[in-house]
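thoughts on my protein:
***
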Amino acid sequence: MGKISDKAWKMIKMVSLIEGKHSQYSRQDIQRILGIKKNSFYRYKNCLEEAGVPIYYNRKLKAYKIRKDYYLRQPHLSLSEILALVASSNSILNDSELPYYEEINTSLAKITASLPDKVQAVLEPLKSRIHFSLNSLVDYSESREIHALLEDAIQEESNVWIKYYSYKRDKASERVVSPYILDFKKGFLYLIAYCHNKNETRMFRVDRIKDSKVTEDKFKYPDDFSLKKYMGNSWSVMRGDKDVKVKVKFTGDIARWIKENKYHPTQEVEELEYDSIIMSFTTSGLSEVKGWILKYGSSAEVLEPESLREEIKDEIKGMMGVYK
């Protein structure tokens, strides 16, 4: 992260800390959370005040606050920008089970209500005709309290005690984690956090967190942590120990379909005769790749690695036993 973006991020973080109704952060607290010195604190504070953010010191609470009646001014948006906002918001508004559903619904209603009548008239019939879908596979309306708690813990950089159900072991365990990132991927919301029990960074499905509690212990978000670097060349969610080169031959209509799409950042496609292609990519963890290949049936043949080819063979033999 560059110096300019790092400074901007820390100022945004500073605002998020002191704008809460029940927030009580002293200068020392803010410095510790942001990892900055006293002179940097006052420099950030001055920049925000010059931008019109009314920051004051509450002597009774011994904490910095933002004036209660302060709200951001309505931005001047073009029609295309408003449509982009509506379209991206609809990806959540189309599914009430997704996180941020209520917040997005309220904020979009406020923005729409503030628009000129003529713009609203143009926008209204288009709202239901331009949208994306996030396809949530879990009802997150039941996890909103845990989601809100994790969100606050990420902002305040507080460790969290969780009771987590492991699907693989079919039982729940207790652990303390330092929450880094909430990431929605492939229909599920994941918490990427440092697990103090295992002494390593791990991914936790939020819907499998059965109970949680913020502790008094703080942590510092590592400056060198990168979600992209952490996920590496994983196919989707599951990470492997090492990268593996995969080659798959596709034929017929499926080959034309595969050629049109981007499935992995390392993907390369070699076109062959008779409507055939070889798709090559480097990934870590083959279990998700195996499931993806199997859904294309006889139109897909694994060429490399041999271990994956053998796994596919075994799976097909098992299926033949089921469908005999």
